[in-house]
Amino acid sequence: MSTEDCLAHWRAHHSSIGARLPGVRRYVQNHGVLADGRFLLPYPGFDIMPELDWDDLTAMDAAIDSPVHEKDSVDDEANFIDSTRTAYSVGARHVLAGGEASDGAVKLITLLRRAPNISAARLAQALIGPYAGAVASAHPLRHEVLLTLPDREGRPAFAFQAIDIVWFSGPDDALAWTRSEAADRAAWQLAGVVVGSERLIARPNRVV
């Protein structure tokens, strides 16, 4: 299946299943912006990246354990997802700058792993403090960071410890940021704090 076909199935059919998950407060599909069938940035290792919000972990667990997920969603995933190569994280959202982004805006999403010798508190301090300040110099439409909760006993380990989301007016602005001096200054604030990252420029499709 091509990336285009995968994204089309996700938007046209699978979105209605996600919208029926019990208690879901927000369901956003992040569709990677394509040029000639490829993402604008190097392939991040995945084709789809949803965001789902619940009031708390209890509500999230109830939804994931419900027939809507365990039966309907899992059955449909077999049509367009390789379930042996998926990953997830559960975190708390922090809005660092800006309000609601305008229609047509895109997200520059960066998935971050904490360096082995760095504490969760040190990662949060870097992202919410010096890094956020450096990003603010570019005046993005909006800046959010999702800080992952501690791994949960009896559940798979989380793949990332933070997800950075910076909103821009369009793909060209997002690409220009990645090549800018300001982006270099921002990245320097995370040097030695994070190791390895994947990036995606995406258009959000809000379902719920």
Structure description:
The structure is a single chain. By secondary structure, the protein is an alpha+beta fold. The protein has one domain (3-206): 2-Layer Sandwich (Alpha-Beta Plaits), CATH 3.30.70.100. The protein is 33% helix and 29% strand. It has helices spanning 3-18, 57-64, 67-77, 120-136, 171-178, 181-188; strands at 26-32, 34-35, 38-39, 48-53, 91-98, 106-114, 142-148, 162-168, 194-206. The strands form 2 sheets. A 7-stranded antiparallel beta sheet has the order 4-1-9-6-8-7-5. The protein has a two-stranded antiparallel ribbon with strand order 2-3. A hairpin with a 2-residue loop joins strand 2 (34-35) and strand 3. Helix 4 (120-136) runs antiparallel to helix 6. The protein is globular. The protein starts with a helix and ends with a strand.
Name some characteristics of this structure.
single chain, 208 residues, alpha+beta, Alpha-Beta Plaits, seven-stranded antiparallel beta sheet, two-stranded antiparallel sheet, 9 strands
Strand-helix topology:
Layout lengths: L2 H16 L7 E7 L1 E2 L2 E2 L8 E6 L3 H8 L2 H11 L13 E8 L7 E9 L5 H17 L5 E7 L13 E7 L2 H8 L2 H8 L5 E13 L2
Antiparallel strand pairs: 1-4, 1-9, 2-3, 5-7, 6-8, 6-9, 7-8
Helix pairs in contact: 4-6
Give the gist of this structure.
The protein has helices at 3-18, 57-64, 67-77, 120-136, 171-178, 181-188; strands at 26-32, 34-35, 38-39, 48-53, 91-98, 106-114, 142-148, 162-168, 194-206. The protein is an alpha+beta fold and 208 residues long. Strand 2 (34-35) and strand 3 (38-39) form a beta hairpin.
